[in-house]
Structures are given as structure tokens and as C-alpha cells.
């Protein structure tokens, strides 16, 4: 993916050491370019290689929640220092999503920081989805909203004692979080979430 004018390169932890800074600051956003992608002459990179993973700063809780709804891997902590965000991002290859220009200025973050321009989560989500070419419908409801872990499918029979009787007899598909064990199923509120998401992103 080209990293110029609104197209941001994706994190590839395995080649992180070789990243070069393409254009440090352009219209208040930082753009970096992975050499793997340069070789592709702007052609779309293999999504298996270029997995996008993020860490959001403490000001971006609603953005993080909505990104998890659409299946993005986003670490978020209500209380976290700039030092800790920087270290976690550096060692995990996560892209820092931030409204904090002090965080962006840190040398350690120069290659993996993305400045969120907007105050409202709707605009923030639009910005991220567009910049990182995320398909918002592809992995919808596949991640735990609390823990950020990928949900696992679970046998219906094993949730019989854990969900309301009505839910058990009307739903067939259940998922669980491997970290907090919370159960997920397709409830009516999911339709309203999808409706909101489409409104935010201007989708039909
Ligand atoms: Zn969980």
C-alpha cells in the first residue's frame, strides 16, 4: 500500500527493524513505509503479512470499543502512561492511535504512531477505517469488547446453564471469550449496532 497522502503503511512486526521513515509529518499525521511494501511498487500487500494491530491512548476509549466491534485488535487501558504505551507498541509492533502530540514527538514512536485528528468517535472511526483500508463488515463481532481477545465458537449444549432459557431455545450459535469467558450470541441489539455503524461510516 502506498504511504503517501492518506495511505498509511501497515505494521509488519517481522520486518520492524528495517522500517524507514518515508515522510515524518505530513498534515499532522505520521507516515511510514515498510521496505517490503516498497518492493511491491504500491500493489496491495498480502494481508497475511501485513496484519494491523493497534494500541489506543487513554483518550480514545470509544474509538477502541468500536474498533473491537468491527474486529480490530486494539489494546486499550483507561490508565496508562505515555512511557508504557510507547514500550508496549515498540515491543509488539502495534500502531499507536493517539490524540496526544507529545506522544507522537517521542523518538521511539516515530515509526508507528497515527494521529487521530477528530474529537468525536464517529469521525475517529471513519478516519481509521479509511486510513488503514479496514473492511468494517468482514470481522464484525469476532472480538471480546472487554478483553480484545478473538472469540471462539462454543457448543450450544455447553452454555445451557449459562444463558437465559429463551436465548438457549432461540439461538443456535454461541461464542465465548477465552480470557473472561463472557458469552456472546446474536441478540437484537446487534442489528442496531450494525445500523449505527453504517450511519457512522456512510455505508448502505
Ligand atoms: Zn473477554
What's the SSE blueprint?
Elements: E1 20-26, E2 29-33, H1 35-39, E3 53-56, H2 61-69, E4 73-76, H3 82-92, E5 95-98, H4 101-105, E6 113-115, H5 121-131, E7 152-154, H6 165-170, E8 174-176, E9 183-185, H7 188-201
Parallel strand pairs: 3-4, 3-5, 5-6
Antiparallel strand pairs: 1-2, 7-8, 8-9
Zinc ion binds at residues 144, 146-147, 149, 177, 179-180, 182.
Can you describe what's shown?
Helix 2 (about 60-70) packs across helix 5 (about 120-130). This protein has two domains: about 15-130, no CATH class; about 150-200, no CATH class. The strands form three sheets. The chain has a four-stranded parallel beta sheet, with helices on both faces. About 30% of the residues lie in helices and about 20% in strands. The chain has helices at about 35-40, 60-70, 80-90, 100-105, 120-130, 165-170, 190-200, and strands at about 20-25, 30-35, 55, 75, 95-100, 115, 150-155, 175, 185. The longest helix has 14 residues, at about 190-200. By secondary structure, it is α/β, with parallel strands linked by helices. The structure holds zinc ion. The site of zinc ion (ZN) has 8 residues, from loops.
Amino acid at each position: 500500500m502506498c504511504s503517501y497522502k492518506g495511505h498509511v503503511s501497515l505494521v509488519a512486526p517481522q520486518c520492524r527493524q528495517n522500517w524507514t521513515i518515508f515522510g515524518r509529518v505530513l498534515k499532522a499525521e505520521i507516515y511510514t513505509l515498510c521496505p517490503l511494501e516498497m518492493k511491491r511498487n504500491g500493489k496491495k500487500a498480502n494481508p497475511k503479512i501485513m496484519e494491523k494491530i493497534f494500541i489506543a491512548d487513554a483518550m480514545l476509549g470509544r474509538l477502541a470499543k468500536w474498533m473491537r466491534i468491527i474486529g480490530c485488535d486494539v489494546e486499550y487501558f483507561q490508565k496508562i502512561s505515555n512511557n508504557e504505551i510507547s514500550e508496549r507498541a515498540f515491543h509488539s509492533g502495534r500502531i499507536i492511535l493517539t490524540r496526544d502530540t507529545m506522544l507522537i514527538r517521542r523518538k521511539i514512536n516515530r515509526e508507528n504512531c497515527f494521529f487521530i485528528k477528530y474529537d468525536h468517535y464517529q469521525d475517529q472511526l471513519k478516519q481509521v477505517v479509511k486510513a488503514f483500508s479496514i473492511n468494517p463488515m468482514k470481522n464484525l463481532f469476532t472480538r471480546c469488547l472487554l478483553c480484545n481477545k478473538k472469540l471462539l465458537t462454543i457448543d450450544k449444549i455447553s452454555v445451557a446453564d449459562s444463558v437465559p432459557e429463551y436465548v438457549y431455545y432461540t439461538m443456535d450459535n454461541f461464542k465465548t471469550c477465552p480470557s473472561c469467558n463472557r458469552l456472546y450470541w446474536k441478540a437484537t441489539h446487534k442489528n442496531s449496532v450494525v445500523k449505527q455503524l453504517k450511519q457512522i461510516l456512510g455505508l448502505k
